Amino acid sequence: MKKTLLTLLATAAMSATAFAADIKPAIIYDLGGKFDKSFNEAAYNGAEKFKTETGIEYREFEIANDAQREQALRRFAGDGNNPIVMAGFSWAAQLEKVAAEYPDTKFAIIDMVVDKPNVRSVVFKEEEGGWLAGILAGMASKSKTVSFVGGMDIPLIHKFACGYIGGVKSLGADYKVLEAYTGTTPDAWNDPVKGGEIAKSQFDQGSDVVYHAAGGTGVGVLQAAADAGKLGIGVDSNQNGLHPGKVLTSMVKRVDVAVYDAFMTAKDDAFKPGINVLGLKENGVDVAMDDNNAPLITPEMKAAIDKARADIIAGTVKVHDYMTDETCPY
Amino acid sequence: MDFFQVFIELAQSTVRVSTPLILAALAGLFTERAGVFDIGLEGKMLGAAFAAGCVAYITQSVYMGLLAAIVVSVLLSLVHGYASITQRGSQIVSGVAINFVVAGSTVILGEAWFKQGGRTPALSEDGRFGTIHLPFADALRDVPILGPIYSGLLSGHSPLTYLAFLMVPASWWILYRTRFGLRLRAVGENPGAVDTAGISVIWLRYRAVICCGILCGIAGAYLSLSAGAGFTKGMTAGKGYIALAALIFAKWRPKNILFACLLFGFLDAFAIRYQGFAFPLIGKVPVQLMQALPYILTVILLAGFIGKAIPPKAGGVPYVKER
């Protein structure tokens, strides 16, 4: 017993010294949880990639409720973790406070802008990826009616919806887009039964392609689409493989790149605070193409999104950002 | 779109949404009528959904999943029974404890076994309940009025949905037409009288609690094996509490439970369908209001429109043979 304890102590001491030489990165996930097959999982993948490439361990935490946010963040900062990455817009208020208390710690927040000298804010142009998804949805739809299921009813999710609607309508004004949100509380990210029910109700109204931006709820949306023989569109991570042949594409948001980049620049001592906007041009968003959805994508669709992508990058097509004025012109 | 068609689709959605509510509310009916209050419906449903998801995935058999759901839910019920009947503890505290324990442990076990963040792997066709198509459903689809009702509303649901609706008259029959039911109701009103008649109050209450476990188990299995395809953490999303509200709303009567659950289900289905829809005269109704509608209505109706809801007299009081 004594011996095991000693060995334990020795290993602990050794790993502590090894740790001190490197940076001590940390990541905190949002309520959806690390393996939501979507947003948080993408963040996790980025952190894992950093770990395998550099061999540097990172600390992580999954919060179970909103009350834990500030506690977790302060704890990580107090323990000397640096940099600390937060996945999710909900961290803004807590970060604002804690970042001021730990001016030497570097923070990165994804999906939200926090204006502090030691914070890097990474935001994505979801509307641009949504635009491409909308074009694919419209072209795949036979009924000319497609739909959108959002998670929590907040401006960020409306931003996803707005770009999508714009993309669909760019094919012609006679297209119809149904839009619904799961709820107004954070529970809306974790209610696949309700997500499925919303999707079924949209299918009843004629929709045959459904795009979700709903975290764990979206699992139910894609399931309902697969069950009903309709098409789903995934979000954040590549979800094409969840139901091969039944998921038209996924609007991928390279949250993994953002996390990896934050860790990597911190390691090379090149971490830059400020606002980092990632769109189509920066490869921050895109529609996922792989073997699972290859049979669903016709050459015309491919040509259409390639053209749209080029237009958006060149600036000839400007996709409206919902967050700027909280309206959707499409 | 044709008004009638919309009505059928809404009704169909209502039936799907109400199924777990009906089962859970009937489960509550059995224990509460026997004098054991049960806040733990939510936790039992969640535990059952988790067990169903795990076992159906491992065995690839939907019936094994259903069985596992019932077993787990009955075991949780027995824990509640042991705490509140045998040990005469607070029924509310025991129920809340079950909710907390299940909410946490399902995520921990799910993460340990499947490494998907507390989610069980997605089930294939064999691991889920399909839908039952009643005979001639397709042939009769074009018959006016009755055709859509038969093929759209009555046909094409999960077997568990039919079971839930059958359980309503069955529960009524058990509670009001059998000796067991009479004694069960008596033990919730005046356990002393039942004891005087030489019937074991303890055993009777335990049987009521087991009935509750079975029904909650089916409700949980519906969530993960029929409505969804696997377990997701916290997937009951408050349905146990809504069922509890429906039970009080229905004044602890089986037939009223059916209507209360259908009403709640309809409001939910309506809110889902008409989000962001511009109504004539009123215009666009905010999503928040639509989603709050079921709760607002519950408060209004409970505030006096249904009359006084009187719980079973001995509800919440542990039975002590001699003081």
Which descriptors would you attach to this protein?
heterodimer; A: 330 residues; alpha/beta; Rossmann fold; 2 domains; six-stranded parallel β-sheet; six-stranded mixed β-sheet; 12 strands; globular; B: 323 residues; mainly alpha; ABC transporter involved in vitamin B12 uptake, BtuC; two-stranded antiparallel ribbon; 2 strands; 68% helix
Q: How do the SSEs of chain B run, as a string of H and E?
A: HHHHHHHHHHHEEH
Largest interface: A-B, 32 and 31 residues
CATH architectural type of the largest domain in chain A? 3-Layer(aba) Sandwich
Q: What is the distance, rounded to the nearest whole angstrom, between the alpha carbons of the first and last residues of chain B?
A: 68 Å
Rg of chain B (C-alpha, Å): 21 Å
Largest sheet of chain B: 2 strands, antiparallel
What does this structure look like?
The complex is a heterodimer of chains A (330) and B (323). The relative contact order of chain A is 0.15. Chain A has a 6-stranded parallel β-sheet, sandwiched between helices. In chain A, strands 7-6-8-9-10-12 form a 6-stranded mixed β-sheet, sandwiched between helices. By secondary structure, chain A is α/β, with parallel strands linked by helices. In chain A, helix 5 packs across helix 6. Helices cover 44% and strands 19% of the residues of chain A. Chain A folds into 2 domains: 2-125 and 256-278, Rossmann fold; 126-252 and 286-325, 3-Layer(aba) Sandwich (Rossmann fold), CATH 3.40.50. In chain A, strand 3, helix 4 and strand 4 (107-110) form a beta-alpha-beta unit. Chain A is built from 11 helices and 12 strands. Chain A has helices at residues 2-21, 39-54, 68-78, 92-101, 126-140, 155-169, 192-204, 217-228, 255-267, 299-314, 322-325; strands spanning 26-29, 59-62, 84-87, 107-110, 119-124, 145-152, 176-183, 209-213, 231-236, 247-253, 274-278, 285-287. Chain B has 323 residues and is mainly α. Chain B has a single domain, classed as ABC transporter involved in vitamin B12 uptake, BtuC (Orthogonal Bundle). Chain B is built from 12 helices and 2 strands, in the order H-H-H-H-H-H-H-H-H-H-H-E-E-H. Chain B has helices at residues 3-33, 41-59, 62-86, 91-114, 146-154, 159-177, 179-189, 191-196, 201-227, 239-249, 254-273, 287-305, and strands at 278-279, 283-284. Chain B has a two-stranded antiparallel sheet with strand order 1-2. In chain B, strand 1 (278-279) and strand 2 (283-284) form a beta hairpin. In chain B, helix 1 (3-33) packs antiparallel against helix 9 and helix 2 (41-59) packs antiparallel against helix 3. Chain B is globular and about 65 Å long. Chain B starts with a helix and ends in an 18-residue tail after the last helix. Classes of the chains: A alpha/beta (330), B mainly alpha (323).
